[in-house]
Design goal:
Largest sheet: none
Mean pLDDT: 86
Shape: elongated
Low-confidence stretches: 1-8, 268-294
Order of helices and strands: HHHHHHHHHHH
Oligomer: single chain
Structural class: mainly alpha
Number of strands: 0
Radius of gyration: 32 Å
Strand content: under 5%
Amino acid sequence: MDDNNNMPNQETAPLENLCKQALEKAKDSRGQLPETRFDAGKRLANEAKAFLAQLQAAVGADAPQYRQVAEDFAEEILQCGIDYVNGSDDNVAAERAMPLVEYAREIAQTRFTEERCDDNISVIRQMLVERPPVALKETDSQLRQCLIDATAQPDEVEYAKQTLDKAQPLLTKIKEATAPDNTYYLSMSTKVVDSVLGTIVDDVNERLLHTDTKEGLARIKHTIMVSMGLFRQLDSMAMLPEYKAGRYSENRNRLASVFNQIMNNTDEGGKIRFRWEYHLLGWAIVIAIFLIIKFACK
């Protein structure tokens, strides 16, 4: 690299000062209302497009001066978008912020900032997918609160059933207001399924640690019976295809295997019951010993 590229460029100094002023003005909006941050980011993005075009024409896109200014613009524009989305209750906040974050990604010069932009683009895309129609805002809020409440409950299948009972009427409202294949509806239904499935898995795992007692076996049999009822409901619920084929099916099959093993090897009193094959083997051994002793005594 030419050493002159690291020296201040007197011809571009005035332009670089204008860039710094634009950045400082945007930074002054930090901590203010979300809408103010959005306006600051939008204004800075417009200024950056003009300034960077001039700076690139003067020194080239690989020059340190250009790269530093572009990186500074990217960082602040990205932060404006993040602050707006995080602080706004506007139903279209994610949609409005996306162009800011995408432009920040376009001009970012370091891998760190590029990855931050990519992460936030993914988050915003998910928000757009899960964004409820305006008419369902209250229902959406109730359903999300239901899922929040579920995280504070003990990991026991009885509480999972309560969560499912509360959530299903809300999901029905969403389905009726959208469509069975609506992405928002599928996403929210999947969240409910995942909450219930997670509780079942945690409860069963905990009960499996205590199957060495009669009470422990009785308790896990009860957990299994409640879980089987829950699965009959979950199996008929709408889910995102990748979730149903992945996490749900994998855990559903694994739990079914555990259920069969437990239910087929315990009697009503909770004691371990040997399989019939082992009973036959036992009787065969007893008979063989009897015959050996009988013939030995002759």
